[in-house]
Design goal:
Elements (H helix, E strand, L loop, with lengths): L1 H150 L1
């Protein structure tokens, strides 16, 4: 009888141990499943957050690049306008300088021409006056010769 009681006690204890082990393993499995669910949930949350952060960053980057593009366009427009204005100013300055140089040269040419014409007119007048004086003197001498011959 004692052996029966010991064996029964042993099997009951063994059965209890197996039941406890089963329960412990079940609890560990539940904890692992819960942990895995939490981990998956954490991964999903992290993935969603990273996606949101990436989209936000991309949106901000797009806005930044758009702003940079607009600034580049504005700078290009300002530079183009300034260069055009500057070229027009240089053109008008050079045009006015050319006009002034032409005016000075034309004035010099006209004065030279007038000087030559004046010189030519003076030469003609001098020649005419010389010729007139010689002719008048010759007439005077001829008249004197005639008067001297007439008077005897």
């Amino acid at each position: 009888w004692r052996r029966f009681v010991c064996e029964t006690d042993y099997y009951i204890t063994l059965d209890d141990i197996v039941t406890v082990q089963n329960f412990v393993r079940q609890c560990q499995a539940c904890k692992r499943v819960t942990s895995m669910r939490n981990e998956r949930a954490a991964l999903n949350i992290q993935r969603s957050f990273r996606g949101h952060k990436g989209r936000s960053h991309a949106s901000g980057l797009r806005a930044y690049l758009e702003n940079e593009r607009r600034c580049q366009q504005a700078a290009t427009y300002i530079q183009r306008t300034w260069r055009g204005y500057n070229q027009k100013q240089q053109y008008w300055f050079l045009l006015l300088c050319a006009i002034q140089i032409q005016s000075i040269v034309r004035g010099l040419l006209v004065r030279d021409q007038l000087k030559q014409e004046h010189f030519a007119a003076t030469e003609i007048q001098s020649a005419w006056r010389g010729k007139s004086a010689v002719t008048a003197y010759q007439q005077y001498r001829a008249a004197r010769a005639i008067q001297a011959a007439w008077r005897g």
